[in-house]
Every structure is written in structure tokens, then in C-alpha cells.
Amino acid sequence: MTDVHHHVHDPIARAVIESAADAIVAVDQRHRVTVWNPAAERMFGWTAEEMVGRVPPIVPDELKAEHNAVQERLLTRRAGEGESGQISIATRRFHQDGHLIDVRIDTSLLKDPGGTPLGWVGVYHPVEDDEIVQHHMAERARLVRRLNDIVADLNAELDLAVVLDRITAALIELTGADAGGFVRIEGERLRLVSMSGLPEHMRGTSAELRPSLVGELLRSGKTVKLATGERRLGDLVWSELDGLHTVALGLSYLQNRPYGALYALFSGRKVGHMELELLELLAGHAGVAVGNAVAYAEVVRQRAHERAVIDSSADGIAVLDHDLVVRQWNPAAHTLTGIPPEDALGRPLPFAMPALGEMLTFPLESGTWLNVLAAEIEETGELVVDFRDVSEAKALEEAKDLFLATTSHELRTPITVVQGFASTLVNRWDELADPDRRTAVATIAERAQSLARLVEHLLLGSRAGADELAVTIEPFDLTRVLEGVVGGFRSLSPLHRVELEIAPDLPPAQGDPMATDIVLGQLLENAFKYSPNGGTVWVRARAEGPDVIVTVVDEGIGIAPGDHDRIFERFVQGEAGDRRRFGGIGLGLYIVKRLTEAQGGTISAHPGRPYSDAFHTKSRKVGSGVTTISDGGGPTPRTHIRKSVATGHDTTPPGEGTCMRLALRRA
What we know:
This protein is 39% helix and 26% strand. With 667 residues, it is α+β, with helices and mostly antiparallel strands. The strands form 5 sheets. Strands 17, 18, 19, 20, 21, 22, 25 and 26 form an 8-stranded mixed sheet that branches. It is elongated. The model is unreliable at 575-581 and 617-654 (pLDDT under 50).
């Protein structure tokens, strides 16, 4: 029993359909069966009750593109073009038992009286050894073979630009289109990324997605579309092709999302269902090929990114394979170990490797201390060994240990003396003569002052390390600060003499006068301390460009080569062997540097010999308390004021000495 009576109202038409020898199947625009006559039941094995209202499962997957192409072509045909109202093809369809039937299908578009499409109707003729059918199937086999070759070629290519160009070229070869192109969907816009048969200036052209043919195709839910008519052919820039009369396009998907569309442009030959079928198939395969190329490009990008991260890492990084042979060796690994990549790759790791998840710390032969950590890449089974230079941290750790030991010693000595003399005064006050009591009290006061200075250094060092040094930036009279500091040191040591030279045109400095007082005091204290045999200490101030320069030069033991920068670090006091001789905790010059930098200035250390020699060769005695200094190189010597403990006394510095150069910004 068929369902013709429910859908065909004219009794004669119903009778014709029911008595027709050929299978007649009608579907609506959603491809659901509306008519399934008795001949269709006999041909395909399903009853009308089973089929009406369903999408018939008779089209093989490999022929669905052909089926869609026929229906799309019928929808886009225009009246007056001399074409018949139906398309006839030889193809195959499924029987209910699963075997394929060779059939010829005459497909027509169903319309209502007003011309609105209602669906399609197909008349199915069984065929046996029809030459046309055989030719059709042979031609299809040829195209399928060629398509397979093209697809294999596309899938083997991993460069995205090349893939897109080959897709476009294959489209023209298979469909005979006059031109073609591939547009990529980029958000709400389309961009032409590949083309053939079109002017080169069109490459990269973009257009809005929504009003375009691609936008229409996306909204339709289909994968292939034909467009004709002058009004519709202005889509994107295709109108530049002379004589353009038909545009066919198919969607390409990447990870189930529309990636772009493949266009075939026809200005000469007419478009058949075969061309549409090939376009749809090729667009589908294009999505796969593009997906491969995009995935490969992402892998290359990710590897390049990982390589860039590894190469730019400050840590040494080595990647080892299953046999524990080095396969990657980054620049930092070369720098830390001194081993170039060509000597490291393909060989075992040049040092001991810790257990996975554990850290190992050890020194290299060069003296560099390394922290080494190893981890496994579960996906590949490779090992990543990360190692970093911790020599500075190791040195700081040792310096802290030495600092604690030194501080303990520095504290113990004055405390022991104070305790001893205080105990003596308490227990033997009446037995001691007045001069002895005064001597004991003076010793206690001196040692208490040493303790106060030590505590002040500890507090300043702690604040400097935490960036909590508060200074005031304002113009101040540097001459006055210099005279006050130098005046305070003149009476401290009978072995040392201080000479102060100030340029008469010395401008005010910009900074903090109290912080500068501490800096200069520490520099003079160091000059005295590291000149155990006495001698002259020269303090000189002058303007130099945008700065005011103060130099403090002594005749002491000097600084070991390589230590001129290091002495400004925490807990560093020149060579370790000098600690017992000179004492101290190694914070003085660190505080000097931080206080100077807080004011926007700089401090540096230099050998003192060239500076002290310059004082002797450029000066001559002109009277009590005043010396003229010739800077040399100019016709008119500049005059400076020198104030010294013993004016006119001149000795040649016996040692290398040290020059401290303090630069502050002028106000």
C-alpha cells in the first residue's frame, strides 16, 4: 500500500503514479519522502509506510555529493536558457538488502503554481548493459582515480600555502572551471588566500562574510552552492573575471568548523552536476589537507617556540634520549660548562645526573657551582636535565657564614674589654689610683663607641638590603660637608695626614647632606684603616660635566686586581686574609654604594698610584695653607684651595694605594 493518496489529490495523477512501471520518489526540501509508489517498493524493497516522512537511505555515501550536485543544479537553473526541466544521470542506489542497483534517474524540480520550489521528484529506470551507463561509470571511475591521486598529493604536502594553491589548481583541472580560488573565513570576514586564473592583485582581498555567497551557504546548512545572475556575481571580487556567468562553491571544514570555501568560476562552459559533485568532494578533501597542514604548522610553531624558550633560557638545558645520550644542548649549557654543542650532542651527559625529582649541587672543574634537576617527559620517555649557576648564591652563603663568624669576633672583643674594665672598676674602685680609673673609663668609652659604630653598620646594612634607605634629595653645600668630615678625621691618627682640595667654583650638589656625610666618613675611615703605616690621604672635589666629583686617595695597601667592583658587595672585605689584620664585617662599602645610588650618584674604586702621583707632579707650595694645582694641558692653570694638617710637607706615596671616586649630581 502506497502513500500516494495522501499527497496526490488528482485521481488521474494518483492512478498514473501507482500504475507506473518505473519507480517514482518525491521528496520535500528537507529531503523527506512525500511519494513512494509501488514500483519504488518493488525496486528498493521498502514499503511506502516505511519511507514516507523519512530521508530515504538509498544513496551510497560516495555518491551523496553527486546527489546533492543534481539537486543544487536544478535549484539554480533559469528559464530561457534552452535547458530541459530535468537532469538525467546513470548511477547506483541501495536495495533494502544492501546490494547496489544500477539505475538511470530523471530528476525534476517540484514547484507550486506560483513557481516556489517544493522539492524534487525522481523517476528511476533499472538498467542492465546500457552503453551510456557503462560510459558514465567509466568516466566516474577515471575521475575518482584522478581525485584520489590529487588527494594523496595534497595530504603529502604540509606547507599550507602550497596546499591551498594545489587545491585551486586541482579544482580547475577536474571541473574545467575558467578560474578558481580559496577564501578563508576569518571571523566576520573572508580573505582570498589562493587563486588561479585571476589577476594577482586580487590575492589577499577581503570582504564581509554575512552578505556573501559563503554566508548564504552557511545559513542554508548545505555544503555546496551554485549562483548565477549578474546581481549575485559581485560576491567578493569575482566580477573581475570577464564573461562570468556561474559561480560554484563548496565549504571546507576544519575540526568540524567551517574553515573556508572553494570557488569555481565559469565564464565559458556550462556547469553540470558532475562539476558540482567534484567541487563538493574536493572541498571536503581540502578540509582534510588543510587540517594536516595546519596541524603540521602548529607542531612546527610549537617546536620553534619550545626551541626559542630553551635557547633563551638562562638555565642550562639538556634533553636526553632513552639511552641517556644528549640530543639537545642549549646555549646556556655551553656557557655554563664551556662545552660546545658539537662536543655534547650524541654523547652522555658530561656530569653526574641526579635521581628524577631530586636536586644535586656540585662544583665543576672550573669552580662553577651547579644545581641540577632531572625530569621525564612521559609522552616520549626523554629526560630533561635543567642546571643553573648557583656560584653567587654559594659565595653569598659562605660570605654569610664568614660574616657571622666575623661579627661574633668583632662583638666579642670590645664586649670582653668593656666587661673586664667595668668589673675591675666595680671590684677594685678603691684600690685604683685616679689616673687608672680614668684610663679604664676612657677604654670603656672607646670600646662602646666601636660597638655603636658596628651596630650602626648592621642596621644600615639591613635597611640597605631591604631597599629601605630613606634619603632627601635637595641642593646642599658640599664644601661645608667636606670640611666637616675632614676636620673630624684630622685628630684621629698621628700617623695620617689629610689634605683637602676644593675647586673655588664648586657648585652645590643634589642629594642628602647627612647621607653624604656618612659616605665620606666611611671612605676616610677605610683610607685610614687600610693605610696601617700612615701617610697622606687626599680628598679632592671638583665639577665635571653634570656631576660633582669627590675623590679620596690613600697610600695604603690597595685593592687586589679583580676586586674593584666586588668590594662594594655585602660581606666582602678585599682578600680574605686581610680580615684578621684589619677587622670589620664587610658592610661599610656596601652601605656607601647603596646610600650613593639612593641619591642618584655613583661610587667606584681605582688603583691609587696614578691619582696620588698626579697630586705631586701638578702641585707646588705657594704659602701657608694654600697650594696652586695645575691641571695641565691648558695655558692658564686653575686654582684650588688645599687645607692640610701639615702644609708644605710632601712625600712620595710608597704603596699602590686606593682611589675612591664619588659622583653626585650637581644642583
